[in-house]
Amino acid sequence: MGERERGGFWVGAAASVFYPLSWLGRRTYLGADKLPATGAALLVMNHVSHLDPPNDAVFVHRNRRVPRFMAKDSLFHVPLFGRMLAGSGGIPVYRGSAEARDSLRAAHQALREGKVVVIYPEGTITKDPTGWPMKARTGAARLALENDVPVIPAARWGTNHIWDGYTKKFHPFPRKEVTTALGDPIDLSAYRGLPVTSALLREVTDVMMREVRALLAGVRGEEPPAEFFRASARGASSDESAG
């Protein structure tokens, strides 16, 4: 295994918090070698629990990379945690404001600098009652099309059995299985160089999320729904593009 990517003090501080949280589950990693050992990558994931970021951060860190998470800007104002998130390279996502595209600019810059950017295109924990991905925002597609970097689909399942963000139920015992599966880089060559329209962004978003959904189906051993769940009141177009 190659040399670990250096992260600095705040990455170490985050690791000291996230590793113990990840121990709440028995972790299984499938296809971990698909995460590039060096250079930029966009890791596109589903979102089922508030425990996802600690679990996913540990996964990336165990593979000797430093994850740069795109997270709601409000999290950056939480005492200590917000400082840790910002100091470890987190990228604030602004929604419903003139700053909405600033988050994408920061993510573009991170990719140009060869970083691993982790994004949950759904924008929040899925509202699908059965936990499948819902209709996603298009910011991830814009990042994928405007940066010639590997776009890696990933699905994780089991964190929701420990902490259900909607019922607020916490079930640490007995320890649950948490599985993270990565797929091959998504081939977006057919879409590169085309005018970036809303229709194109929607199509590419769905292409990426279908790959994520297929990985999740493999982890769950279930047939996925044919369509993405549509939550009500998803917000305006500025929310949609922020991703």
UniProtKB/TrEMBL annotation:
Keyword Metal-binding assigned: no
Pfam families xref list: Acyltransferase
GO terms of molecular function: 1-acylglycerol-3-phosphate O-acyltransferase activity
Enzyme Commission number(s): 2.3.1.51
Coiled-coil region: none
Enzyme class, first EC level, given as a word: transferase
GO CC annotation: plasma membrane
Domain of life: Bacteria
Domain Phospholipid/glycerol acyltransferase: 41-159
Record InterPro entries: Plipid/glycerol_acylTrfase
GO terms (BP aspect): phosphatidic acid biosynthetic process
Alphabetical keyword list: Acyltransferase, Transferase
Protein name: 1-acyl-sn-glycerol-3-phosphate acyltransferase
Organism: Actinokineospora spheciospongiae
